[in-house]
Write a structure and sequence with these properties.
Elements: E1 4-7, H1 17-31, H2 37-55, H3 59-73, H4 80-93, H5 104-114, E2 116-122, H6 125-135, E3 143-147, H7 152-161, E4 169-173, H8 176-185, E5 189-192, E6 213-215, H9 222-231
Parallel strand pairs: 1-2, 1-4, 2-3, 4-5, 5-6
Helix pairs in contact: 1-3, 1-4, 2-3, 3-4, 7-8
The structure holds magnesium ion.
């Protein structure tokens, strides 16, 4: 029996990574005079990787990494006007509209009637709260967990607090690395719903023949999959 179902937010309930891609295109445009495009993208990714442990996941860390990279590739000569544009691009991301993905609302509504459902997301606290409020789904969740990282330990702790533990819980999301593999390690069910481009630092291979791993093309099939899991079929 499943007591608790956790939903990832970004690129599971609503589009997100696409806004990062658009902003990165703007970053490349602004610095194109100083370095070739592939080099700019590489250096930015290096900065993001380096800074993850300091700033965590989200728009603020991404903006700081863009600025840091701009300083590096221009050897300190980046004009203040460009820095200002990068800050504006980051702020724009914090205001982007929230567009629900197919079946998100219906699936959350359906499962909220039969299970304890949680939103489990990493990212900037204010930004994630803003998006949840704008999504109109906030009242349907029994709990919201905005965490600094998604590890087996984090899932173990969250699902122990909201139900009968990870062993009777399911996590659904677009990221194999953050939403699926760690919940499988914690003993729960992991459902992968791929969507759009995946961030280079959030990539992982699927597990091989794991009995609690499932993949769905979209959220529409989740209520049925939950029934099947509970029937043991
Ligand atoms: Mg996601």
């Amino acid at each position: 029996m499943l007591t608790t179902i956790g939903f990832d937010a970004d690129d599971t309930l609503w589009a997100n990574e696409a806004y990062f891609r658009l902003t990165q295109e703007r970053f490349v445009e602004l610095l194109a005079d100083y370095a070739p495009v592939p080099h700019l993208n590489e250096r930015l990714l290096e900065a993001e990787r380096r800074n993850l442990g300091h700033y965590g996941f989200g728009v603020k860390g991404f903006t700081l990494s863009m600025i840091e990279t701009a300083i590096e590739v221009t050897e300190g000569r980046v004009p203040a006007a460009v820095i200002s544009e990068l800050l504006a691009a980051g702020r724009d991301m914090l205001e982007h509209p929230v567009n629900l993905l197919p079946h998100a609302r219906a699936t959350v509504e359906t499962l909220s009637r039969s299970h304890r459902i949680l939103l489990i997301t990493k990212g900037d606290l204010l930004d994630q709260e803003r998006k949840l409020a704008a999504s109109g789904l906030g009242d349907l969740f029994h709990g919201v967990e905005i965490v600094s990282d998604k590890t087996p330990e984090v899932y173990t702790r969250i699902f122990a607090r909201h139900g009968q533990g990870a062993g009777q819980s399911l996590m659904v999301g677009n990221s194999m690395k953050s939403d699926v593999l760690p919940i499988l390690s914690a003993g729960g069910w992991g459902v992968h719903v791929p969507y759009g481009p995946i961030w280079a630092l959030d990539h992982a291979d699927p597990p091989e023949h794991h009995p609690r791993f499932h993949e769905l093309p979209d959220l529409g099939g989740l209520p049925h999959l939950v029934l099947e899991i509970e029937r043991g079929t």
